[in-house]
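User: structure tokens for this one?
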Amino acid sequence: MAAAARPARHDAAAWQRTRRTAVCLAAGPQVEILFSADVEGLSTQGERVGGVIIRHGSRDRLIAARRGVVLATGGFSHDATLRKRFFPPAAGFISATHPSATGDGLRLATVTGAALNTDATSPAYWVPASLFRRADGSRGVFPHTATDRAKPGVIAVNAAGRRFANEALSYHEFVLAMLRDGDGESDRPFYLICDGPFLWSYGLGRIKPFTRNIRRYVASGELVEAADIAQVAAKIGIKPSILAATIANYNSDAKDGRDPEFGRGSTISQRHLGDISHKPNPCVAPILYAPFFAMRIYPADLGTAIGMKVDAQARVLREDGTPVAGLYACGNDMGSIMNGNCPGPGIALGPALTFGYIAGRHLAEGSVAGASAATALV
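Assistant:
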């Protein structure tokens, strides 16, 4: 049986187009898909998890699982209580993950005595993000992963108008620098600063390269535009003389492709994300030509790293290391196999696919009494 964990109203049609749904539908009556079904709790038989209790429509329903229950609800990126408990204060409350990631899996598991890997190096996988408004008025979060920060001709500054990190760092490491600079303040502003040629050539955030009309981005406040750096500084609340000095200091070396302050473009990875056609450094160019632009960025997450401890079969473990019978976890409900470190893109998706497969194999290979054996995925 499959139950969706707190989907938004507009998600059902999108989910039906996914490969997972198509595979389930192809299985016919063997698989039942329930949309807009809230999981109320786990059903236990002694110390064994034997199913889930869901609210579907106006009634509660027990879904028995003879083999076991797999928790894959997406972590707790959108749960304010758990974020406050595990995230540093400077992280704030912005996430690029799906709104359904509200910590349901962790709450369900802890009732059974499941243990969490709270000693993770970082509680989440981080990404700098800008905010915007969609046509329907809802808030959008744009993750600045690899499209702009490493390109030549943009810098990132903090609330004081000073650079604080190598802009070409990986998105995870870049936000760690933001959190260190934030010094515990949950709403400390950061900005990307660039000039007209940069915006035209590379874009910024969700603004694509070669965008001729940027008026709607400026009108919404997503993008700040000004004729000179002093005006940019005034519009974003930074002392003009400090921002001007920051850019002048950066430009003095950038004209020769150097960044002695932070070593931007010093690794193969950084240069790969830059502009290989720009010489001598694919990541460094001066900021010179009006108009000038600023875009506010925030520390955001791409998923949580704190989750349930599991064994090599994806079985959820108690504090004493024994498995909770009938309970499995994968994805962001499972504690990070990298312990909160982020060596590269896909560090959440790769283990999610792998341990989902492992859990499925272990469940399929288990011996079960009775003519049929169901599995609940929540």
